[in-house]
Amino acid sequence: MQSFEDIYRKESDAVYSYIRILVKDHQLAEDLTQETFVKAYRSLNRWRQESALRTWLISIARNTAIDYLRRKQPLQYVLLETGIQISGGHSPEDKTIASESLEEVERDIQRLKRTQRECLLLRRVYGFSIKETAKILGWKEGRVKVTLQRAVKQLSSYGLMREEGTDHETFK
């Protein structure tokens, strides 16, 4: 078993990135990442090694972020739960990193339902298996597959509308 310090070094960036997407605030994401690792440390003896360590940590991160939003930022929690996004608000740091096409893709992803967005993020960005994604989200594997399929179909339709010059904002 690796030391907890090694676990933190190896997994903290992935946990932070996941939380940052959920809360959209750098400082808050850092705070919730720390809280996630404190919770993980306290419950390390309860981790069943049947799931990957990263899967377990992302589950804790997800619950920590959602609990925080539910308590402290109910409006943002409702937006997260429903998949509704308020446009704008990218930091200068984000603007310098992201190209115009990446920003379009990000906007499209943000327009997905929360469940589709989370599922897509866990599978395509973090590379979790269907089984691991289902475990993190507390779903059956079939639901993960269907949700992913719908997310990809929805993203494709956004891209097609953009190619045709149609503003997908008019189809809300």
UniProtKB/TrEMBL annotation:
SUPFAM superfamilies: Sigma2 domain of RNA polymerase sigma factors, Sigma3 and sigma4 domains of RNA polymerase sigma factors. One of its GO terms (molecular function) is sigma factor activity. The keyword Cytoplasm does not apply. GO terms for biological process: DNA-templated transcription initiation; response to stress. Pfam families: Sigma70_r2, Sigma70_r4_2. It comes from the Bacteria. InterPro entries: RNA_pol_sigma-70-like, RNA_pol_sigma-70_dom, RNA_pol_sigma70_ECF_CS, RNA_pol_sigma70_r2, RNA_pol_sigma70_r4_t2, RNA_pol_sigma_r2, RNA_pol_sigma_r3/r4-like, WH-like_DNA-bd_sf. Keywords: Coiled coil, DNA-binding, Sigma factor, Transcription, Transcription regulation. Residues 8-73 form the RNA polymerase sigma-70 region domain. Belongs to the sigma-70 factor family. ECF subfamily. This is RNA polymerase sigma factor. It comes from Salisediminibacterium halotolerans.
